[in-house]
Design goal:
The chain has 165 residues and is of the alpha/beta class. It has one domain (5-152). 45% of the residues lie in helices and 19% in strands. The chain is built from five helices and five strands. It has helices at residues 5-19, 47-56, 71-82, 88-101, 129-152, and strands at 22-25, 36-38, 61-68, 108-117, 120-126. The protein has a five-stranded mixed β-sheet, covered by helices on one side. The longest helix is centred in the last third of the chain and has 24 residues, at 129-152. 16% of the residues are buried.
């Protein structure tokens, strides 16, 4: 879903201010690794419905996090590209995809809302399509970077601790 998350962020914060929830500003990605249930944003994108559920479930505190897309993320990918063995065409394609994403620098790329009920987090998370493209690109480049580093170090994924006896 290709949304303007900067506008949505302002709208959500205004709604939270008037709805009576206490808002805890958490760090983006700070919920990873915790037991959580994700809201079906694809079929039910309305954050107000999510917050209505929170209210009906008795939640008084809402976790709110937003992340901005930073140029450093793209710079890091560019650096990794330099260490990959790529054909000229592959390198051009990756560099072109990275360049296309530069227009989103400073733009909100992720919003998270969450509330806790009985030690389980219920989470509303939304990201625009262009950020999904970035994540896919990052995964592609990281896999090329990792595979090539493994080969350079002898291809032994056990780090030399495997006995060939």
């Amino acid at each position: 879903m290709d949304l303007n998350l900067d506008t949505l962020k302002r709208e959500i914060l205004e709604y939270l201010e008037t709805s009576g929830f206490a808002v805890f500003r958490s760090s983006p990605g700070g919920l990873e690794g915790l037991p959580m249930v994700l809201w079906d944003v694809e079929h039910h994108p309305d954050y107000q419905s999510f917050l209505d559920v929170a209210k009906k479930a008795g939640a008084a505190l809402i976790l709110f996090a937003a992340a901005e897309f930073e140029s450093g993320d793209l710079d890091e990918l560019t650096e990794q590209l330099e260490d990959c063995e790529l054909t000229r065409e592959e390198r051009r394609e990756y560099e072109s995809r990275i360049r296309e994403l530069r227009i989103f620098e400073g733009v909100t790329c992720s919003l998270e809302l969450g509330f806790d009920v009985h030690s389980r987090l219920y989470v509303y998370e939304v990201q625009p399509d262009w950020y999904e493209e970035f994540l896919n690109l990052e995964e592609e480049i990281n896999s090329r970077f990792t595979d090539e580093n493994d080969i350079e170090q002898g291809g032994d994924s056990l780090g030399g601790y495997f006995s060939k006896n």
